[in-house]
Amino acid sequence: MSADESKADIEITPERLVSWLAEGPEVQVIDVREDHERQAGHIAGTRHIPLVELSDQASSIDQGRPVVFYCRVGGRSQMAAQAFRASAYEAYTMSGGMVRWVDEGRPIEPEDGHVADH
């Protein structure tokens, strides 16, 4: 498998995440950004675990359910997804992160929120 194929396999689009969430509560969505980034704006109904705390809280993430990580543009969430895949989780990263989510016109909380700088 080439690097591009591997990257494509681990990434899902915001559109795919929306449809997956609409299908039911199976998928876990985790924001790995820093606290100030989360407070500025986030995807409703998602969980927040800053990347630096992720390994300490890994046991609180259900290994039997898919997990999608997101961050500002996708770098941190890709690291998280790769690490969790190495531990036998079905893990993904949302491609383009919050920047792409907002650029595509998807809602965030709070209603007047924004994508904070890293």
Residue-averaged pLDDT: 92
Intertermini distance: 32 Å
Strand order of the largest sheet: 1-5-4-2-3
Helix count, per DSSP?
6
- CATH-derived architecture: 3-Layer(aba) Sandwich
Which range does the strand content fall in?
5-15%
Low-pLDDT stretches are 1-6
Total count of domains: 1
**Class based on secondary structure composition and strand pairing:** alpha/beta
Find the count of extended strands (DSSP E, 2+ residues): 5
Helix share, percent: 25-40%
CATH topology: Oxidized Rhodanese, domain 1
Radius of gyration: 13 Å
Largest sheet: 5 strands, parallel
Q: CATH homologous superfamily name? A: Rhodanese-like domain
- Broad shape: globular
Element-level helix/strand string: HEHEHEHEHEH
The CATH C-level name is Alpha Beta
Features:
Oxidized Rhodanese, domain 1, alpha/beta, disordered N terminus, 118 residues, 5-stranded parallel sheet
Walk me through this protein's architecture:
This protein is an alpha/beta fold and 118 residues long. The protein is built from six helices and five strands; from the N terminus they run H-E-H-E-H-E-H-E-H-E-H. The model is unreliable at 1-6 (pLDDT under 50). Strand 2 (28-31), helix 3 (35-40) and strand 3 form a beta-alpha-beta unit. The longest helix is centred in the last third of the chain and has 12 residues, at 75-86. It has a five-stranded parallel sheet. The chain has one domain (3-103): Rhodanese-like domain (Oxidized Rhodanese, domain 1), CATH 3.40.250.10. It has helices spanning 3-10, 14-23, 35-40, 54-57, 75-86, 97-103, and strands at 11-12, 28-31, 47-48, 67-70, 91-94.
